[in-house]
Structures are given as C-alpha cells and as structure tokens.
C-alpha cells in the first residue's frame, strides 16, 4: 500500500531503548538474535506473536526468540498489526495514529491506511496521536520487523480501557490471511525479586499457553488488555499457543532484586 500522508511519527525512544545509530542498532539486533532461542527445525511461521518491549539489552533476546519464527514468511507478510499498552496517556478504547509512517533509525515504515479504516469502523477505536507520541511498546518492535521481513506496512494500536471481547472484535476484523501478522507487545511481572518473578511469570505463561485470557490479571502483564484480546481469538479459533522463551531482566542485563519478566509466544 502506498504512503499517502505526509505526517511521519519520529522515533521516540531511539538512543534510550535501542541505539539511535543505524549501524549500532544493527549490531544490537544481531546480538539479540544470536542470544535468542532458535527454532529446532522447519516449523511454519505462526499467525501471531507475543513479545516483550523493554530495552534491547534486557528483553531483546526474548523478543528475538519470537521474531526468529517469522523468517520462513519474510517474503509473504505484508501487513503487521501491532497491539500494545498506552504507557503515557490514558486511553478509553483503542487509539490509532493519524501518521502516514513510523520512522526508526533503519527507515520509515508506512502505516496501513486500509487497515486503519477497518479499525476505525469499530466504536472503540479513535485517532489519538498523543497516545502514540512517546509510546515505546509498539516502536521497539519495528526494527526487529524491519530486519526480519522483506517489506511490510504496519497498523499500531494502543489499547487502553477496553474489554477483551471488544478488543478481540477489532483484531478479528484485521486478522486477514497469510499476508497479515499480529503482534501483541507485553512485558510480564514488574519489580519483584527474581524467584518471586519467576514463579509469577511461570503461572502467567501457563495461562497464555492455555489461551486463557481470564487467568491473566492487569498486574501479570503490562500489555494485558491486548494480550487477553489476542488469546480470546486464539481460543475461539482453536489455535495452538507455544511458549518460545521465558526470562526476566535478572537473566539478561539487570540485578535480581527488582526484575521485569519477559516472554515470547507463537500462536498459530
């Protein structure tokens, strides 16, 4: 799809969550992929992913574990629907951007205007650029996608106060075919000691694999609303959810006193 709008949403967290220099960013991505969990064989690419969204030093390897599964579909996927929380702005329902593209140090990714119009046909969805201006949960996924996929447009969705059923209805109309990938961006538990976090995240991971959205509380995952919506569809469509990776910041680049949990899951 062509980029018809002029407005480009600039990177908000380049230089903070990931490197702003393109060459340094490419190195960081290579390191993340090297430290990720690689597929055992020739598994087909999944329809949807659950990925974390912290700084690459912390959650990059876990995110890479999910994105590595998309390599077989790199030439097929043309649309990515990104769903994540709104960390900075209170949102009633789901916010889309008016921007024609999201920029990263690796280049601009066009926003899928047709998909945006589909989303806006739902009463829960509205244009709210403030929700996207500083939001990192969606932005940090783009460089991974830019190096894994050949060419794609994106629809970023910031989910606020919205029921799982309403959010699932929006995602279901955007489900598409093999050309469309859905990505739910969510970290897991926050700021517990290592052992406590590991236990909490293991319980949450069990609920995710069981496609049981009702078992996931708001404090179990910071992107719980989008995650529950995706799992609602997975349960309805009787899709398989596979755990790919489960770590926390104490396993990657942080101490073990106050950790943040990260999980990677494939749905298909």
Q: Radius of gyration, rounded?
A: 17 Å
Annotated CATH architecture? 3-Layer(aba) Sandwich
State the end-to-end distance.
25 Å
Structural class: alpha/beta
Order of helices and strands: EHEHEEEEHEHHHEHEEHHEHE
Largest sheet: 9 strands, mixed
Q: Categorize the overall geometry.
A: globular
Count of individual domains: 1
Strand content: 15-25%
Describe this structure in words.
The protein is 35% helix and 22% strand. Helix 1 (22-35) crosses helix 2 (56-67) and helix 7 (164-173) crosses helix 9 (224-236). The chain is globular and about 45 Å long. The protein has ten helices and twelve strands. The chain has 268 residues and is α/β, with parallel strands linked by helices. The protein has helices at residues 22-35, 56-67, 113-120, 129-133, 136-139, 141-148, 164-173, 194-209, 224-236, 249-252; strands at residues 8-9, 48-51, 79-85, 94-96, 101-104, 107-110, 125-127, 153-159, 180-185, 190-192, 241-248, 259-267. The protein has a single domain, classed as LigB-like (Protocatechuate 4,5-dioxygenase, Chain B), CATH 3.40.830. The longest helix is centred in the last third of the chain and has 16 residues, at 194-209. Strands 2, 3, 4, 7, 8, 9, 10, 11 and 12 form a nine-stranded mixed beta sheet that branches. It has a three-stranded mixed beta sheet with strand order 1-5-6. The protein starts with 7 loop residues before the first strand and ends with a strand.
């Amino acid at each position: 799809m062509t980029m018809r709008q002029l407005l480009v949403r600039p990177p908000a967290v380049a230089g903070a969550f990931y490197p702003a220099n393109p060459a340094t960013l490419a190195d960081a991505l290579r390191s993340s992929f090297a430290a990720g969990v690689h597929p055992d064989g020739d598994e087909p690419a999944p329809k949807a992913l659950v990925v974390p969204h912290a700084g690459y030093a912390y959650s990059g390897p876990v995110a890479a574990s999910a994105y590595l599964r998309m390599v077989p579909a790199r030439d097929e996927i043309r649309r990515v629907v990104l769903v994540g929380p709104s960390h900075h702005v209170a949102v009633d329902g789901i916010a889309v951007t008016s921007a024609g593209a999201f920029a990263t140090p690796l280049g601009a990714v066009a926003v899928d205007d047709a998909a945006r119009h589909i989303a806006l046909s739902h009463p829960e969805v509205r244009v709210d650029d403030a929700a996207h201006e500083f939001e990192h949960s969606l932005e940090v996924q783009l460089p991974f996608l830019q190096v894994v996929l050949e060419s794609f447009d994106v629809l970023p969705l910031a989910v606020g106060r919205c029921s799982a059923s309403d959010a699932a209805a929006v995602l279901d109309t955007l489900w598409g075919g093999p050309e469309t990938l859905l990505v739910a961006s969510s970290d897991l538990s926050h700021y517990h000691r290592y052992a406590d976090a590991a236990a909490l995240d293991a319980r949450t991971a069990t609920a995710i694999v069981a496609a049981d959205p009702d078992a996931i509380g708001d404090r179990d995952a910071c992107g719980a609303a989008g995650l529950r919506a995706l799992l609602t569809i997975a349960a309805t469509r009787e899709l398989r959810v596979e755990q790919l990776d489960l770590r926390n910041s104490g396993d990657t680049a942080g101490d073990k006193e106050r950790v943040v949990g990260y999980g990677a899951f494939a749905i298909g």
